[in-house]
Design goal:
The protein is mainly β. A hairpin with a 4-residue loop joins strand 52 and strand 53 (about 835-840). It holds the Pfam family K319L-like_PKD.
Length: about 1250
C-alpha cells in the first residue's frame, strides 16, 4: 500500500527543478503518509413495498484502502417504522398502518476505518403502498326511483361519490384501507333539485363481509345484500339504529343494534318518509331539514303522523300497502327457514311473544301460553303458512259481569301465516296473520282474523350470555316477566325476582325456600329451580327449568323472552326485563326533573318531580308528594277526613299515610332510570300491604320547562286545568284525549271544541274560525299561554295563565308579608271542593268553589264567632263566614282577599263588615331556605297569637330550647326541641304541639315568619299567625339616643298607622323622659334607668292624682308599667320589645301585653302635618278669657264597621268631620272650615292648630295654641 504514494511523490520531484546544474544532495527525509481514500456504497434497487409487511434494503459498501467501520441508516419520513439491522448493510423495515401510498427515501451513510475517516452515502426511494380492499356496489335509490341523487359510499375514513341515473340506479367502487375492512359500509343518497330534502341512508355489513357476499366478481348486488337499495325502508332502519346517537362500528355491533329494531316501527317510519316524498300536499315540518331528521326523533315522527292522519286518515295504510308490494323496497326470504325462532315485536318488552321451531321435515312446534305441534309448514314465495294440530292458547283473561262475578275468557289461535317483507342476518320482518277465536265461559265465539307486523328473530342471533357478564362484580340482577295469562298473582311481591349468579353455578335469590342453579346452553341462559314447602327444604313443592333468551340490549340489561313448559298451570312463554343493578347517586338533584315513562312500553306520560316535593302528571298537579329514602324515590299519598290530600301532618288523628309507591333506583345510565316500582296501600286493618311490583324504565331530563302541546302532553284521558284571564278571573278547562275523530276535545266555559295539535299548539274551530292555544312560557304552577284567532296572532287580550291546578289547591299560605305582623290564612284544599282553613284563632272545615265570575270562594262549613259583646242587654256578634280570593292579573303569586264577616244583633243578621287586604300566595318552596341559618342563641319573637305578647326564645346547640312569653308566670319556661326541616324551623312542645315557622323575609337581624301551629291533641286549637323573630343583640342606648321623634314601621317599606312618638328630656330630673304622641301626652311617662327606658303611671289612691314616679307607699301606688328592651338595630332601624303590666293595690303584677316596635329616630321632634292617629282622639286645651276651652276629638265605629270622627269645642255640640291630606273638614257655625297643624309647632306642652274657612288660607290670626294640660 505504500508503492503508490511513493510513486505519486517521485513524480512531483522530477517536475520540480529548472537548472542543469546538479543540486547538492539534501539531507535524508521520511516517506510521506499516504492519503485515505473514501469508501463507496450502493443500495440494491427496491421500488415498492407493502405496508405492515417487512422488506429488506441491501447495500454494497467497499473501501479501497481499508475497511467499512460503520453503517448508519436514516429516512426522510416521520413514520414510525420498525427497523432491524440499522448498523449493518441490510436494513429490514416494517411500516406502520398508513392511509395513503407514501414514498420514503432511505439513506445509508458508511464510514471507513482510516485515521482521517471518510464517509460515503447512497439513497433509495421506496413507495410504500397501503393494503386496500375494494368492492363494487350497485343498487337503486328509491321509494319511487330518486333520479340524479348524489350517492356517497363510505367505510371508516374512505369514501367514494357517484350519482344515480334517471332510473335511480347507481354503481360505485369502494376502495378502503386494510385497517378499515371491519368498518361498516354506509350509503348516503342525497336528492337534488326539487327533491333536495330527500336524504336516504343504508347501513350494510363490514367491508370484509360485503366482499365475501359479493363473491368472485367483486360486485355486490341486491340478491347478495338487499341493503344496496337505498330506500325509505333502509332509512327508517338507519334512524332506529342511530336514535341513541351511536352508529355500530362492526358486524357484531350491527347484530346487536338490529336486535333493537322493531319491524312494525320501521315500516311505519318508512311510510311517513314515502308520504312526504311522494305527495306534494305534504311537506317536512318546520325545522326538519330532510327525511332522515323526520324519523330520527320519536316526537317529530309522531307529530308528523298526527298531521298526516288529520289531513288524510287513509293515506298511511294505503302507502304501507304500496311499500309491501314494491320489490325494490321489500324482499322475501333467502335460504332455508329451518330453525328456532322468537316471534315478537321488540319495541315494547311486554309485547306478546311466541317460540317457533321449524324442522326440516316441515313439522314444528309453537309455544304461547301452551304449546302445539305444527303438523305442516310450507313456504310459497315469501309466504310462510303454518298448520296447527290443535289451537294454540294465546291469552287468558277475566271479565266482570253485571252481577260483579267474573268469567274466564280464553283466546286461541287456530292458524297462522307470515309474509316475509325483508330480512337481515338477525331477523326477518314479517306480516303475521292469525285466525283466532274466543271461549267465553263454555261458549265459542265467531273466529276473527288478526294481522300485524313483527320480528321473526333467530334464536342463534340473540345476545350470547357469558359467565363473566352474569357474575362480574357480584352483580345483582332483577327479572320481571309478563305474559297473557292475566289471572292475578296471589303474591304480588314475588312478581320481581332478585338473583345473584355465583361462579359455582348456583344462584342466590331472595327466596329462602328455593334452590336455583344456572348454565348456558347455546344462546340461552337456563335456570333450573326447585321450590320447597318451607325453609327446611324437605318436601319439594315445584321444580322446573326456564330458558331465557336475551332479545334486546338495554343500557342496564336486556329485554328477554323465556320458555318454561315445566308446569301446565303457568304459561310456557313469558317476556320482560332482565336488569343489572349498579351503584347509583340518588339525591334531590338527580331525582328532580321530568321522568318520561315508560321506555319500552306502549305507555307515554310525563311525571314531573319538583325540588319542593310536589309532583305533576302531565299538566295536572298530583295528590302524591315525593321524597327520598336511601336509593328509593318514594311517592306518598295521604288521606284527611276521608279525602285524598296533597299532604298532611301525620301526627294528627285525622291524617293518614294510605299509600306508598317506591321507585327503587337499580341503575342510571344515559339518562335512563331503571327502577323497581312497588305499590303499597293501607288495608282495612291499617297495615301497608304490597299490591303490585314491577320493573320499569324512565327517561330522565332535568329540564322541567314545557314549550309545546303534543301527543304526550297533555296525558291521555281527562286533564283539568284552570285558565286565568287578563283580568285575573278563573275558568275551568277540560282537555280530553280519548277522541277518535281528532286529537282531543277541549272544554272552555262549558263549551266543547274538537282540537288537533299543530306545531306545538292546540287548534280548534268556532263557527269556521280557527283558534290557537299556544304556550309562551312555563313555570311550576302554570303555563303562560295565548289564545288567539289564527289569522290575527297573539294579542295582550289573549294572554292568560293555565294553572295546573286551582291555585289554592293543596297546601298554601296567604300572608300579607308587606306587614311585619300581617294577616295570615293557612289553606289545605283538596280537588273535591273540601279542605281545612287556619286563622289566628282556630282551624275550620271548609268547602270551596270557583264562582262564575272567576273568584275563588272559600266558605266555612259552620260560621265561627270571632267577636261578641253584650251592651245593655243587646248581644252583638261578628261571625266569620269565609274568604273570597281573586288572583292578581299581573303577578301570579299576589291575591286580593276579602275576609267575610257577618254582623248579628240578638241572633239576627243585621249587616256585614268585610275586610279587604292584599297578600301573597305562598307554597312551601316559596319560603326562605333555612339550611344555612345558625339559630343557636337568644331571640325575641312577636306575633298576635292569643293576644299581643312577645316570646323570649333560646335555641341551644343540642336541639333543645326554652321559651318564656309575656303571659307566663315569672318562674315558668316552656321547653321544646327544634330542628330545621326543609324551609321550616320546627319547634316541638311535648308530644302534641308543633310550631312550623316559615320565614317570608330576611330582616338582616332576624326574620318575618308565618307560624303554622298544630296541636295534634286538639286540632281545632291549631292556628296560623305571622310575626317577627329577631336575634337578641341587646344594643345599649344612652338617654340621648332615645330623645327625638320616632317614626314606626308596620313593614319593611310601610310606615305605621300609629306613626310617631316624640320623646323629650325633662329638666326637673335628668333621668326623666316625656312621651308625647303628637296630639296626646301619655299618662304613662318615662325614665331612663340602667340603660333601659321605663314608662309608668303612679297614682295617689286618696285623690287619684297621677305622678311620674315615686317610691311605693300608701300615698303612691304603681298602677301600670311598660318596660322597653332594645333587641337589635340595623342601619338605623331599631327593634324594641315592650311589655306592659298592671299592678293591684298590693303591688301584684299582672302582664297585659307584649309588643315589638320597629322604628327610626330623628333628632328633631317637629311634626309637619297631622296624620290619622293624631285626630282619632285628643283632648286639648285652649286658653280663654274665662278659663280654658276644651277641644275634644273622638273616633267611633258603628255596627256596620264604618268609622265616624267628631270634634267638640268647648260647650258646643260635637260636629262630625272628615279627615284627608292632614286636614280636618267640618262645618262650624254654618261655615265650611278647615283645621290643620301649624308645621313644627308641637312641643312637650302642646301644639298649634290653624282654623280657617275653606276658601281662605291659614294666617297667623287663625293660629290656635292648644295645650295638653289646662293653662
Amino acid at each position: 500500500m505504500i508503492v503508490a504514494p511513493m510513486v505519486f511523490s517521485l513524480a512531483l520531484t522530477a517536475c520540480g527543478g529548472g537548472s542543469d546544474d546538479p543540486a547538492p544532495s539534501p539531507s535524508p527525509s521520511p516517506d510521506p503518509t499516504p492519503e485515505n481514500q473514501a469508501p463507496t456504497v450502493s443500495i440494491a434497487e427496491l421500488e415498492e413495498a407493502k405496508e405492515q409487511e417487512a422488506f429488506t434494503l441491501t447495500a454494497t459498501a467497499t473501501d479501497s484502502d481499508g475497511d467499512i467501520a460503520k453503517y448508519e441508516w436514516s429516512t426522510d419520513s416521520s413514520l414510525d417504522f420498525t427497523l432491524a439491522g440499522v448498523d449493518t448493510n441490510e436494513l429490514t423495515v416494517t411500516s406502520p398502518d398508513i392511509s395513503a401510498d407514501t414514498p420514503v427515501t432511505f439513506k445509508l451513510t458508511v464510514t471507513d476505518n482510516g485515521t482521517a475517516a471518510k464517509t460515503a452515502s447512497a439513497e433509495q426511494t421506496v413507495l410504500i403502498k397501503r393494503k386496500v380492499s375494494s368492492v363494487t356496489i350497485t343498487g337503486i335509490v328509491t321509494d319511487e326511483p330518486i333520479s340524479n341523487a348524489n350517492v356517497t359510499v363510505s367505510a371508516g375514513e374512505s369514501s367514494v361519490q357517484t350519482q344515480s341515473g334517471s332510473d335511480g340506479k347507481y354503481t360505485a367502487e369502494l376502495i378502503v384501507d386494510e385497517s378499515e375492512v371491519t368498518d361498516l359500509v354506509q350509503i348516503k343518497a342525497q336528492g337534488t333539485g326539487e327533491q333536495n330534502q330527500v336524504e336516504f341512508w343504508s347501513l350494510l355489513n363490514s367491508v370484509e363481509t360485503v366482499i365475501e357476499q359479493a363473491g368472485d366478481d367483486g360486485i355486490l348486488q341486491r340478491e347478495e345484500n338487499f341493503s344496496v337499495n337505498v330506500t325509505n325502508v333502509t332509512t327508517a332502519e338507519y334512524a332506529l339504529i342511530s336514535r341513541d346517537g351511536e352508529i355500530p362500528n362492526d358486524d357484531e355491533a350491527l347484530k346487536t343494534a338490529l336486535l333493537n329494531v322493531d319491524a312494525d316501527e320501521k315500516l311505519q317510519l318508512a311510510t311517513l318518509i314515502k308520504v312526504v316524498v311522494d305527495n306534494p300536499e305534504f311537506s317536512l315540518p318546520e325545522g326538519v331539514n330532510n327525511t332522515l331528521e323526520l324519523v330520527s326523533s320519536v316526537e317529530t315522527a309522531e307529530a308528523f303522523e298526527a298531521e298526516v292522519n288529520e289531513k288524510d286518515p287513509t293515506i298511511i295504510e294505503e302507502t304501507k300497502k304500496e311499500i309491501k308490494e314494491d320489490t325494490d323496497l321489500v324482499t322475501g326470504p333467502s335460504g332455508s327457514l329451518v330453525g328456532e325462532y322468537i316471534l315478537q315485536s321488540p319495541r315494547y318488552y311486554n309485547n306478546l311473544a311466541y317460540h317457533l321451531s321449524l324442522k326440516e321435515d316441515s313439522t314444528g312446534v309453537i309455544h304461547g301460553i301452551d304449546q302445539q305441534v305444527i303438523s305442516n309448514w310450507t313456504l310459497d314465495g315469501n309466504k310462510l303458512s303454518l298448520e296447527f294440530a290443535n289451537a294454540l292458547k294465546k291469552s287468558v283473561s277475566e271479565t266482570t259481569l253485571e252481577d260483579q262475578s267474573t268469567q274466564r275468557v280464553e283466546t286461541f289461535v287456530s292458524g297462522m301465516s307470515m309474509v316475509v317483507l325483508g330480512e337481515n342476518e338477525v331477523f326477518r320482518s314479517v306480516e303475521v296473520t292469525e285466525t283466532t277465536y274466543q271461549m267465553i265461559g263454555e261458549v265459542e265465539q265467531t273466529p276473527e282474523t288478526v294481522t300485524y307486523i313483527s320480528n321473526l328473530t333467530s334464536k342463534m342471533q340473540t345476545v350470547e350470555p357469558t359467565a363473566e357478564m352474569l357474575t362480574a362484580g357480584d352483580a345483582t340482577w332483577y327479572i320481571d316477566l309478563d305474559d297473557r295469562d292475566f289471572t292475578l298473582n296471589d303474591k304480588p311481591e314475588d312478581e320481581v325476582s332478585k338473583l345473584i349468579f355465583n361462579l359455582d353455578g348456583t344462584i342466590t335469590s331472595d327466596k329462602a325456600n328455593e334452590e336455583i342453579t344456572w348454565i348456558i346452553e347455546d344462546r340461552a341462559l337456563v335456570i333450573s329451580y326447585k321450590g320447597f314447602v318451607d325453609e327446611t327444604k324437605q318436601e319439594v313443592e315445584f321444580q322446573g327449568a326456564v330458558s331465557i333468551w336475551l332479545t334486546k340490549v338495554l343500557d342496564a340489561g336486556y329485554q328477554v323472552v323465556t320458555l318454561d313448559p315445566s308446569d301446565e298451570e303457568w304459561p310456557n312463554t313469558e317476556y320482560g326485563l332482565f336488569i343489572k343493578s349498579a351503584e347509583v347517586t340518588v339525591n334531590e338533584t338527580t331525582m328532580s326533573g321530568r321522568w318520561h315513562g315508560f321506555y319500552g312500553l306502549n305507555q307515554s306520560y310525563y311525571m314531573d318531580l319538583y325540588p319542593d316535593g310536589s309532583l305533576y302528571f302531565g299538566l295536572e298537579r298530583s295528590d302524591y308528594v315525593w321524597d327520598i329514602d336511601g336509593t328509593t324515590m318514594v311517592r306518598k299519598v295521604y288521606m284527611q277526613n276521608g279525602h285524598r290530600v296533597e299532604s298532611c301532618f301525620e301526627e294528627r288523628d285525622d291524617c293518614s299515610l294510605v299509600g306508598l309507591t317506591n321507585h327503587e333506583i337499580l341503575a342510571m345510565v344515559n339518562d335512563r332510570y331503571y327502577i323497581k316500582r312497588t305499590f303499597l296501600w293501607m288495608n282495612q286493618e291499617g297495615i301497608m300491604e304490597v299490591s303490585q311490583v314491577g320493573l320499569f324504565i324512565f327517561e330522565y331530563n332535568s329540564d322541567l320547562s314545557i314549550t309545546s302541546f303534543d301527543q304526550v302532553l297533555p296525558n291521555y284521558g281527562d286533564t283539568y286545568v284552570w285558565m286565568q284571564d287578563a283580568s285575573g278571573n278563573l275558568v275551568l278547562v277540560q282537555i280530553n284525549r280519548d277522541s277518535e275523530e281528532s286529537d282531543g276535545v277541549i272544554t272552555i266555559a262549558n263549551q266543547e271544541y274538537a282540537f288537533n295539535f299543530a306545531d306545538g299548539t292546540i287548534v280548534y274551530e268556532v263557527e269556521g274560525v280557527k283558534y290557537v292555544l299556544e304556550i309562551t312560557a312555563s313555570s311550576q304552577e302554570y303555563l303562560s299561554v295565548c289564545l288567539y284567532v289564527e289569522s290575527e296572532g297573539c294579542t295582550d287580550e289573549g294572554k292568560a295563565k293555565l294553572w295546573k291546578q286551582m291555585p289554592l289547591m293543596g297546601n298554601s299560605i296567604i300572608n300579607n308579608s308587606d306587614l311585619y305582623v300581617g294577616e295570615a290564612v293557612g289553606l289545605s284544599l283538596d280537588r273535591w271542593g273540601n279542605g281545612k282553613l287556619k286563622t289566628a284563632m282556630t282551624e275550620h272545615d271548609v268547602y270551596w268553589y270557583v264562582a262564575p265570575e272567576g273568584v275563588i270562594e272559600i266558605n266555612l262549613q259552620s260560621p265561627s264567632t270571632i267577636y261578641s259583646n253584650n251592651n245593655n242587654g243587646v248581644m252583638t256578634e261578628h261571625k266569620l263566614t269565609g274568604y273570597h280570593v281573586k288572583l292578581d292579573a299581573s303577578d301570579a303569586m299576589k291575591v286580593s282577599v276579602t275576609k267575610r264577616v257577618d254582623v248579628y244583633t240578638d241572633g239576627s243578621m243585621t249587616g256585614d263588615m268585610h275586610h279587604d287586604f292584599m297578600a301573597k300566595l305562598y307554597y312551601e318552596r316559596d319560603f326562605l331556605d333555612l339550611s344555612g341559618v345558625d339559630f343557636v342563641g337568644k331571640w325575641v319573637a312577636y306575633d298576635q297569637a292569643d293576644g299581643n305578647q312577645i316570646s323570649r326564645v333560646e335555641f341551644k346547640a343540642d336541639g333543645t330550647g326554652t321559651v318564656k312569653s309575656t303571659f307566663d308566670e315569672p318562674d315558668e319556661n316552656s321547653d321544646f326541641t327544634w330542628s330545621v326541616m326543609g324551609n321550616a324551623l320546627q319547634l316541638q312542645f311535648g308530644d302534641t304541639e308543633y310550631d312550623n315557622l316559615h320565614m317570608t323575609k330576611d330582616l338582616a337581624v332576624g326574620y318575618q315568619f308565618v307560624d303554622n301551629f298544630t296541636d295534634v291533641g286538639d286540632v281545632y286549637s291549631s292556628q296560623i299567625v305571622a310575626g317577627i323573630l329577631i336575634k337578641d343583640t341587646a344594643p345599649t342606648l344612652s338617654k340621648a339616643d332615645y330623645q327625638g321623634r320616632w317614626l314606626y314601621f308596620d313593614g319593611t317599606e310601610k310606615t305605621s298607622g300609629q306613626n310617631g312618638t316624640e320623646i323629650y328630656p325633662e329638666e326637673e330630673n335628668d333621668s326623666y323622659l316625656t312621651f308625647v304622641f303628637g296630639t296626646v301626652i301619655s299618662s304613662y311617662q318615662g325614665r331612663y334607668e340602667d340603660g333601659q327606658v321605663i314608662r309608668a303611671r303612679y297614682v295617689n289612691p286618696s285623690n287619684n292624682e297621677r305622678m311620674r314616679y315615686c317610691e311605693p307607699s300608701d300615698t303612691c301606688v304603681l298602677q301600670g308599667e311598660m318596660r322597653y328592651q332594645m333587641v337589635a338595630e340595623h342601619e338605623g332601624r331599631y327593634f324594641w320589645a315592650r311589655e306592659f303590666s298592671s299592678f293591684d293595690t298590693d303591688g301584684n303584677e299582672y302582664p297585659n301585653s307584649g309588643v315589638m316596635f320597629v322604628g327610626e329616630r330623628s333628632e328633631s321632634t317637629d311634626i309637619a302635618t297631622l296624620e290619622d292617629y293624631h285626630v282619632d282622639f285628643f283632648y286639648l286645651h285652649q286658653a280663654g278669657d274665662n278659663g280654658s276651652i276644651a277641644w275634644y276629638s273622638t273616633n267611633s265605629t258603628n255596627e256596620m264597621g264604618e268609622s265616624i270622627h267628631t270634634l267638640q269645642i268647648g260647650d258646643a255640640e260635637a260636629v262630625p268631620f272628615t279627615f284627608e291630606n292632614g286636614q280636618m273638614h267640618l262645618i262650624l257655625d254654618g261655615q265650611d272650615t278647615i283645621i290643620e297643624l301649624v308645621p313644627g309647632s308641637n312641643n312637650k306642652d302642646g301644639l298649634t292648630l290653624c282654623k280657617y274657612l275653606k276658601d281662605n288660607e291659614c294666617t297667623a290670626q287663625d293660629h290656635v295654641p292648644l295645650f295638653f294640660n289646662a293653662p
